[in-house]
Write a structure and sequence with these properties.
Length: 800
Amino acid sequence: MTTYLPAPTGPPPATHVPPPDEREPTTRRRLQFFDRVKILVVIAVVLAFAVAKRHADIPVMPLGDVIREQLRAKQWLLWAAGLEVVRQLHYLMSERSPRYHRFWTRQVWGRWERRMSTLNPWLRFRLGRLFRVGVFVTIASFCLAFIWHVAPVEALIQAPSKLWRNAFSPVSGLPFIIEISLTLMLAMGQFAAIFWFMSRGGVDTYMPNEVKTRFSDVWGQDKVLAKVRENIVFLEKPELIEAKGGHVPGGILLWGPPGTGKTLMAEAVAGETGRPYVFVDPGAFQNMFFGVGILKVKGLFRKLRKLALRYGGVIVFFDEADSLGSRRTGTDGGFGNPGGQRAGFEAPHQCNGLHYVSHDTASRAAGSVRAASTTPLPPAPSGLRGFVATGMGGGGMGTLQALLTELSGLKKPRGWMSRRIRSFLTMPPRQPPKYRLLVMMATNLPEALDEALLRPGRIDRIYKVDYPTLEGRKRTFDGYLDRVQHQISTEQVERIALMSPRASGAVIKDVVNEALIIAMRNGRDTVIWPDLLEAKQMKTHGMPDDVHPMALERHGVAIHEACHAVAMYRLKRREMIDIATIEPRGPVGGFVSPVPLEEPGFPWRRLQEDDVITFLASLAGERYFYDGDNSVGVGGDLRASTAIVMSMLGFSAMGKTVASHGVFGAIDGDPVRTDFARQVEEHLQALLARATELVAGNRRFVLAIAHALERHKTVSGEDVQAIFTGGKGPIVDGAWYQTEDFLQAYEAYHAGALAAHRSQGKLQLPLPAPFDAAITASSSSALPPPPPPVGAGRNGGAPS
């Protein structure tokens, strides 16, 4: 696999040798007197109890004989006492002699650990488990031998038959303590079985070579993919960074809009590495009963540790991580980041100046904004959505805390044998193996994740998986088109990619699939350009309603949308028209949809004013063509225009004032608010005048686009361009719209519509139909397109 780390230059760096740990004590910590004699005291008490019981059974037997008899019968107690004396002498030497302590910790046990560390971690785990089972069986055999008065080996052989026979005999021969133990174990086993059953599900494990996804299947995310490859390099060759004193990053958060390839990228990581891939369902830790989620978390990481030891690493992927790791409190985002807006998740197109000031100043500034009154703010960007803390962490109380503990607790000594028995034998606690876990999480709500989950050590790297760029969209379209038969040229792929500015990989895949369905519906197996264009428009804008408005209403909507189209074409040089339609879709009677010609950047004043003029063109056009009258259909345009102008003047210093009105604690009737409303109205009136001038100067083209909309209901941006240039579009021949015959015919049609509007009657005139464009183009009545009006751009939205 290709390594994306920079190649070293010059002489090879020296291997990093960690310095000796100065915190390691030179001698063993001294024990208290009680800790030193407690086991000897227990042995003495047991022996004294046995002597007293024997003397009570045979009172005539001298006490000395009883003691000698019990010492012979219970020699194992003497051996245990002797071993304890030796152990305490060993402790005493280690507490007082640094050399003796260093010899045992470094030469004896240290050498043993170094030799065992050369074994495979999975083999060490299997041997350790086998050793623990052997210790348990040995202790059990000695206990049963003591009860049944037989040899330990014989007790081990007879144990299954005796236990089974005594457990089900009418008069049980088992000791009372064992009967009670079995009863308790049965009762506890029922609860354990219930919780075990409820804790199943939600976690899918894929073994190596079961995942076929590779990095070559992830298109349009090359920048993020290159960063993720580094984590794979460190996962497979951890010595590259650990030998230099670093550590392997163990957690990745992929955040971004839905459908951009986050899950696909995690599958590609598992496929490239050949490691087990564990997929955690978003609802895996949400349960009815308290504590089940905690059991699931602990069971999951127990499985991950075993898989990591067995296969040398494992990839675990938490999809929709916000369902589990939601924030517990509504705290701020930390230093320099007040207001809960955390680093890495800032809203686009804003300069966060709070990063440049002190923490106190930033807190005061953010507090002033939060303490603002009811002054309406413009719509917040998607990155600043509000969040209400739940206090429980999506999976229920304790589930998130269990996840945090497991993520940060993988380096602690685990197991009773490692922490207790080794300490009893004066062995230093064995550190756990380095579990090679790559934790990957994905979410489209990063602001909802708990701060503790995102700290370094748990999630070390945070990558935004955004919508693909133009080149990424082209590559994605090419990839999915290669899977079907098609006749789509490279230029058409570039055009459809340009017309899909915020299309994710999932959307592009769906568009290509829908184009194939359209081709099959038309009796073809090959996708052609009209199929792809129809599929894109249907997926972007939805299916039109089956509504047929009256001719007079249809004409009014066509004039309304034609004014938008003309303003957009003349003013917007960085955008092109995608489609213009008068077909109703839900509450929308018609619309003109643009697509950007380049990646969006900071909106400047001129660009925002062009947006407002485009919105106000509908009001200007209706008043211009209907003698000062207008419909309620301009209400949405006015709301958008007002919001943009309020944001410009009140928050971006694009008016007469510099102060941000979001900080003022204004109330109704306040002079500040009254003056601000007056400024907004004056600015809107000035832009409305410019929109009226633009519509009047392009009257011919407004009528031409309105006719095309009435005739075809929906036209593409290429058709709008053909109307302006006199060329030929996919469904519109623009040559006829350049003739005087068209203008006279449609002016008469509009005059009839205006008369019907005044009298509240019906429009009786038929819609003018175009005739032979070739005859029209060669006739003397053909007119060149008029020059653009003053203040408007030339051919603004059309591609050069």
